[in-house]
Amino acid sequence: MRNKILWSDETKIEPFGVNSKRYVWRKPGTAHHLPNTIPTVKHGGGSIMLWGCFSAAGTGRLVAIEGKMNAAKYRDILEENLIQSAQDLRLGRRFTFQQDNDPKHTAKITKEWLRNNSVTILDWPSQSPDLNPIERSWRL
Questions:
Q1: Which chain positions lie within coiled-coil regions (predicted)?
Q2: For residue 129, which phi and psi values (nearest 5 degrees)?
């Protein structure tokens, strides 16, 4: 069964790490030396939102998300990428799809699309991102 699970998630990547703390060890008097500084960009440098999936067979599609993510946009991402990812990974039509319990994942429009496309959903406990192997992949 595990070989037929297609794991998925979204993440926000900030290339310049605006929302993260960084710590450095440095000798006294070297705070402003180049190796001990972090470059900055105007207006924070922006961010990119991604949706991706993978299975035991390999990686599926990785999609850059334009604008604000909502249930309709999520459904569109699934429509354009989910079945194709499963086919590319040779999972067949009887794969199991994993997604967390984010409101856009459990929205009526999303559930209808999944039901209409005969996608089996893996039941997922709430507040359990540590169980999803894709969560560790985003940190690489």
A1: none
A2: -65, -25
Confidence (pLDDT) at 29: 87
Q: Supply the CATH number for residue 122's domain.
A: 3.30.420.10
Q: How many domains does the chain have?
A: 1
- Residue 118's domain comprises 2-138
Q: Which residues pair with 48 in a beta bridge?
A: 13
Q: pLDDT tens across 35-92, in order?
A: 777 767 666 667 889 999 999 999 999 999 998 899 999 999 999 999 999 999 999 8
pLDDT confidence band for 121 (50 / 70 / 90): very high
